[in-house]
Design goal:
This protein is mainly β and 206 residues long. 12% of the residues lie in helices and 39% in strands.
């Protein structure tokens, strides 16, 4: 379980691909891997991965082809930065909203607006997933818990303050990039329940 509060950025050092599996070697900032154990869960751009090996501040993760297909992990290359969050522990402050680290879909960055002292990002999700996106609702984008601003069809925006831009990969995001999306679980449950009662559109095909 995760909170959606990104703890920092890590750098992809190496990717080793074999049939059906890719291994990511990711270098973390100093002191951010203390007490990490093999088998621990870490969210990389919002995707829950399991630590398989450690070499100092470099952690290794395996991702199956299905994971690469359903997330943006397959787009990563050595040198790319990623958001990370270690799994939440009992007693941790929940500053965002609870996340599972299971990505529902991806979205494309369709516009970037840069007014003074903040940035507004517009995303486009596949049409079936728009039914879960509401103004002022929660959403996780690349592992960051964010509040949805405006919604226009299957497009929505979020407003980011300078600290968010500094502490996450959103500071270098570009138009056309893909991001991982995890829908708020409570919102999904409510919408799907209403759909079963005939008050909404059919659930998306998975």
């Amino acid at each position: 379980m995760f909170t959606g509060i990104v703890q920092g950025m890590a750098v992809v050092e190496e990717i080793t691909a074999v049939t059906g599996l890719s291994t990511f070697a990711i270098r973390f900032p100093e002191n951010s891997t203390e007490n990490v154990t093999i088998g621990a869960s870490v969210a990389i751009n919002g995707t829950c991965l399991t630590v398989t090996r450690q070499d100092g501040n470099t952690l290794f993760f395996d991702a199956m082809q299905e994971t690469l297909k359903l997330t943006t992990l397959g787009d990563l290359e050595p040198g790319h930065s990623v958001n990370f969050e270690r799994a939440a522990r009992i007693g941790d402050e929940i500053g965002g909203h609870l996340l599972s680290g299971h990505i529902h879909t991806t979205a494309n960055v369709v516009d970037i607006i840069r007014p003074e002292n903040n940035v507004t990002l517009w995303f486009e999700v596949p049409e079936p997933w728009a039914r879960y996106i509401f103004a002022k609702g929660y959403i996780a984008i690349n592992g960051a818990s964010l509040t949805i601003g405006e919604v226009d069809g299957n497009r929505f925006n979020v407003h980011l303050i300078p600290e968010t831009l500094r502490a996450t990969t959103f500071g270098t995001i570009e138009k056309g990039m893909r991001v991982n999306i995890e829908i708020d679980s409570q919102t999904q449950t409510i919408v799907d329940t209403l759909a079963r009662l005939g008050y909404n559109r059919p659930a998306p095909a998975l």
